[in-house]
Amino acid sequence: MSGLREECGVFGVYAKERYALAHTVYYGLFSLQHRGQESCGIVVNDDGVLSGYKDLGIVNDVFTNEVLNKLSEGEMALGHVRYGTTGTNDRLNAQPITVNHIKGSMALAHNGNLVNSHELRSALELQGSIFQTTSDTEVIAYLITKERLTTNSIEDAVNSAMHKIKGAYCLVIMSSTKLIAARDEHGFRPLCYGVKEDGTYIVASESCALDAVSAKFVRDIEPGEIVVFDNDGVRSIRDHCKKNAKSLCIFEYIYFARPDSVIDGVSVHSARIRAGRCLAQDYPVEADVVVGVPDSGLDAAVGYSLESGIPYDIGFIKNKYIGRTFIAPGQKAREDLVKIKLNVVKEVVEGKRVVLVDDSIVRGTTCARIVSLLKEAGAKEVHMRVSAPPFLNPCYYGTDIDTRENLIAVNHEIEEIRKMTNVESLGYMKIDRLPEILGEDKDMGFCNACFSGDYPTETPVQVAKFKFEQRISERG
Ligand code: SF4
After folding, report:
1. Are 110 and 238 in a shared domain?
2. Mean pLDDT throughout 108-132?
3. Number of domain units in the chain
């Protein structure tokens, strides 16, 4: 319950025949909702004609039956859920983005953040490009359509554009006749595809979305790979593969992804269990019960219990009908919402020494509030265990860890944080043990820059979320 926001989720469908695709995308987006709750959209391709709908809000609210029925039929479709890490929460910035260009139409959905979007956008603007949105996704769309002028196919245009864009991106692109999936050379964000029994191909940010539409997982898309789905079947372009070491976001395993997803061969649930085991080995304590903070602390709490032998129990009941805490404007409202969102099961913690496991501590305020709820319910001691190392650096790859001033660990020693959160002991995941959470795949290569400061790419010159909306006085 870190209060961090995920990036985005992408979903694509390539069917052999025309059918009610929008519903399939709807189910897929519904299962990717945890990756973004600000806006969502679907574009359907019906015999080469692209039509879509997008709006602010969660999937369930935006896509009413009426909206879905209007969109429904086609042979291909794209969907997107968004938490904007670049640009305001504006309807215009919702995705997919659809563009009409000299060679046809294209829709694009993007997960991640570019590290050179500022330079690319300035260069395009100098050449006369006019942007409608403030998100870097439009920069990618422009680059692809520009490359399309001098290339033979849309996949060649994507391939050329990938030489220019740097940073984190998983793209699903739809032309009149093709669905294309592409993952950046570092593989920061997850992307996989599967196939349904009727031969319909599905591309999704996470495998849980394949499960939701009864598609069988085929494989993850490799870092740097472009996969094309068209009349000729499925083919892969690997010009960008193996050019860089893989840098999958380790925080996908700790917090962002759903535990029922498998990313690059590693089960998210199992990774969290292993994280909990590491915490139990590094920070043993005499206690009566282990509880996890719903949702992303639960699996690690089970891991801590399995390793330590201290019984696991359900310490909190989460109100499923409330939005995420960060939706609340202002700190006071956020604190009050913690109590509405989580209620302590008093019988589990009263008079007990409690091990409390959570995925991360960002500002520390939510954590302190949760601890106070436990103590108000009668917990004798609270021993906090955190399955992520302390956040010390911003993330440039599609999450909102972007200001050092808000990260409690930047300005406070662990002992100070222990006192501020009012726990008897505090143990963070050790950074050198992070590879172990990947089990046998510990050497796969991952990004841990927000903990270590070791960035796999150049870092952007301008990083503010609202970088394209600066006032005159703020511009350099
Ligand atoms: Fe993930 Fe942190 Fe790297 Fe960002 S900086 S991609 S959150 S590990």
Report:
1. yes
2. 90
3. 2
Q: Is residue 260 part of a domain?
A: no
- Do residue 320 and residue 448 come from a single domain? yes
Looking at the fold, whether 123 and 226 belong to one and the same domain comes out as yes
401 in Cβ contact with 326 (< 8 Å) = no
40, 57 contact by CB (below 8 A):
yes
Whether 8 is catalytic: yes
Give the Cα-Cα-Cα angle 72, 209, 69 (nearest 5 degrees): 15
The pLDDT, as a whole number, for residue 456 is 96
Pocket probe mutation, ligand 1, options 35, 111, 400, 401, max atoms within 8 Å of Cβ: 401
Q: What is the mean pLDDT of residues 224-245?
A: 96
> Minimal CA–CA distance to 154: which of 180, 136, 172, 185?
180
43 in a domain, yes or no? yes
pLDDT (mean) for 263-287: 98
User: Cα(251) to centroid of ligand 1, in Å?
Assistant: 6
- CA 111 – ligand 1 centroid, Å: 13
| Ligand 1 pocket, residue 434 CB under 6 Å | no
399 close to ligand 1 (CB < 6 Angstrom):
yes
Is residue 472 pLDDT above 60, yes or no? Answer: no
Which CATH number do you get for residue 202?
3.60.20.10
**Which two tokens mark 99?**
């563009």
Q: Which atom of ligand 1 is nearest to the CA of 456?
A: 3
The answer to the question of residue 255 being in a domain is: no
Same domain, 240 and 371: no
Structure confidence by residue, pLDDT tens digits, 3-58: 565 579 999 999 988 989 999 999 999 999 999 988 999 999 999 999 999 999 99
- Ligand 1 near 249 CB (within 6 A): yes
Q: What is the pLDDT of residues 299-317, one digit of tens each?
A: 999 999 999 999 999 999 9
Distance 162 CA to ligand 1 centre (A): 21
Do residue 59 and residue 108 come from a single domain?
A: yes
Cα 180 to Cα 159: distance, rounded to the nearest angstrom: 11
**For residues 408 and 404, which has the higher predicted lDDT (pLDDT)?**
408
The contacts of residue 112 (CB under 8 Å, 6+ apart) are 7, 8, 167, 168, 169, 170, 184, 188, 189, 397, 398
Domain containing residue 422: 266-452
Ligand 1 neighbourhood includes 396 CB (under 6 angstroms)? no
Determine which one of 8, 40, 208, 395 is catalytic.
Answer: 8
CB crowding 3-38: b at 16 or more within 10 Å, else e = bbbbbbbbbbbbbeeebbbbbbbbbbbbbbbbbbbb
152 and 118 share one domain: yes
- Probe ligand 1: pick from 250, 256, 434, 444, max atoms within 8 Å of CB? 250
What predicted TM-score, i.e. pTM, was given to this entire model? 0.92
Pair (47, 192) in one structural domain: yes
Check which CATH number belongs to the domain holding 279 and give it.
3.40.50.2020
74 and 208 co-located in one domain: yes
Task: Convert the pLDDT of each residue in 325-384 to its tens digit.
Answer: 444 445 555 556 788 889 999 999 999 999 999 999 988 888 999 999 999 999 999 999
Does some domain include residue 253?
A: no
Q: Is the CB of 257 under 6 A from ligand 1?
A: no
The residue whose CA has the least distance to atom 6 of ligand 1 is 249
Report d(CA 86, CA 464) in Å as an integer. 8
